[in-house]
Write a structure and sequence with these properties.
The chain is an alpha/beta fold and about 300 residues long. Helices cover about 55% and strands about 15% of the residues. An 8-stranded mixed β-sheet has the order 3-2-4-1-5-6-7-8, sandwiched between helices. The two termini are about 15 Å apart. The protein has 12 helices and 8 strands. Helix 10 runs parallel beside helix 11.
Length: about 300
């Protein structure tokens, strides 16, 4: 199944909440006067796109349509193009790190799908013929260690794990030493995501980064924030915290199939300017795909 078709299924709830009210306004008013533009902008904001992105979309629509009367299909097509243009810079032609072993650090709040996404990316890399090692550095939660261990077993991959409460830096150290000795191509590190207080999280992530730098001579090749689409724009404040802690290089958007807030992908990207590497929908390990702006725009605006 093509990515846009998967996205179309996954974005069904978002699409109806996003598209139906806009279509109703267009069909009722029949012409795009000032009142119609204001109402369209309000609807875009209500669809969790945010004021800034909504304003940009309306400006692009006004430029493309130049007022007057237009069919719903013309307006829908113009809106699709505007969404694509807004998100086109979010794409990344991502490839695994050239240095071996490459280190991918996964961060995010608990419940965001971080551990599962770590395993999904491991599955993606293994399908490319890479030898992948998983590191269970979320030692704060015993459940996270158990979950990654189960997923590793399902994938047939080795997992480096310590007891709950152990030093995450020690887990990463042991994983990197093991990866070097056994010829692994990539090490994927699942980290803790508690946000009750900022300082312990930053200190912990900072220590993990220093361990990697000491052993590899460089920071983790990728520092990936896993964002739960169901939280909408609240993810922006989360991202700012993690960006401060590790210097994010990419985003993975999860749970698009369970959200009516998928439109928040737009303000998240516009606010952070960090590439969207992958989007996830569904629980299977294969339910992860590279982000493509055109596919996303089509899935959001075509029934």
């Amino acid at each position: 199944m093509a990515l846009w078709e998967k996205l179309k299924q996954g974005l069904a709830r978002t699409r109806e909440g996003f598209l139906s009210p806009i279509e109703a306004v267009v069909r009722e008013r029949r012409s795009l006067d000032e009142g119609a533009w204001e109402e369209l902008e309000d609807l875009l904001i209500a669809a969790d796109i945010g004021p800034q992105a909504a304003g940009e979309l309306v400006a692009r629509l006004r430029e493309a349509l130049d007022g007057g009367s237009h069919s719903w299909e013309e307006i829908r097509s113009a809106l699709e193009e505007a969404v694509y243009q807004l998100l086109s810079g979010a794409e990344a032609d991502w490839s695994p790190p050239a240095a071996r072993p490459g280190v991918l650090l996964f961060v995010g709040v608990n419940g965001s799908g971080k551990t599962t996404t770590c395993a999904k990316v491991a599955h993606l890399l293994s399908r490319q013929g890479l030898k992948v090692l998983l590191a269970a550095a979320d030692t704060f939660r015993a459940a996270a260690i158990d979950q990654l261990s189960r997923l590793g077993e399902e994938l047939g991959m080795e997992v480096v794990a310590h007891r709950p409460g152990a030093d995450p830096g020690a887990v990463v150290h042991d994983a990197l030493v093991h990866a070097e000795s056994k010829g692994y191509d990539c090490v994927l590190v699942d980290t803790a995501g508690r946000l009750q207080t900022k300082r312990p999280l930053m200190e912990e992530l900072g220590k993990v980064r220093r361990v990697v730098e000491k052993l590899q001579g460089r920071p983790p090749d990728e520092r990936i924030l896993v964002v739960d689409a169901t939280v909408g724009q609240n993810a922006i404040s989360q991202a700012e915290l993690f960006h401060q802690a590790v210097g994010l290089t990419g985003l993975a958007i999860t749970k698009l199939d369970g959200s009516a807030k998928g439109g928040a992908v737009i303000p998240i990207w516009r606010s952070l300017g960090i590439p969207i590497l992958w989007v996830g929908f569904g629980k299977d390990l294969a339910d992860l795909e590279p982000f493509r702006a055109r596919d996303f725009a089509q899935a959001l605006l075509r029934r």
